[in-house]
Structure prediction request, 284 residues.
Amino acid sequence: MKTYVIAEIGINHNGDLNAAKRLMDIASVAGCDSVKFQKRNPDVCVPEIEKNKIKKTPWGEMTYLEYKYKVEFGKEEYDEIDRYSKERNIEWSASAWDLDSLEFLLQYDIPYIKIPSAMLINDELLIAARDTGKKVILSTGMSTREEIDHAVVLLKSKIVVEPYYEIAGNIVLLHCNSTYPAPIEELNLSAIKTLKERYNCSVGYSGHEFRLGTSVAAIYLGATVIERHITLDRSMWGTDQLSSVEPQGLFKLMSGIRELEQARGDGEIKVTKSEEKVRKHLRG
Prediction:
């Protein structure tokens, strides 16, 4: 089974459309299936207490609200992203952080709606995402089992009770550690199997750690979707850059993923085609 790989550009473009397109180029050449951005209405998402705080940025000092608008793409930029994704033959979507952003994204023929871990407890947003009829990918970082239970019930078209084996195929849960970067000893990759068994839906992995092998290992544990942040350079300014994968790393990651897909096999014990000649030579 082919793993669906999402290259999370997020806000690592720092408001620069050309940087976003360069990242789309890299993801496309590397063989990723999708790039993903983040869409917010800063007036809604930024807490009132934070809006007027002064922040030092590469563009000078400004309020935190002004900064959030500085790195936020609008319709003009997303129109170009939509056009360019077709040119580069790669799908795109974005994490919807609020209802306004969800409505904005529905202007485009995106393949899925992504709900970030921070919004897992936003009932109104989950219901609205469910009602679009599109596939919903939900990250589960920093969440309790009870919170995930509640979110999964909301993403169903009808209420169910335990066990959750009736879950429809239109939901993908991403196991995730929301620390940037995430400590290796806290990744708990075995939770991928736990999510799959409990909810009987597609499960993936959203990684924020420095390592690449952990994402490949997640596939062996049952992940069918892999999401990793990407960046042009981890030394660039921005909160997500350090926990992102640079171009060379992305190529290594994609190579590891595709090699595992070829190597994992079906588990049946048998003499392979390439072994037949060796067997005849060594055993007669």
Notes: The two ends are 37 Å apart (CA to CA).
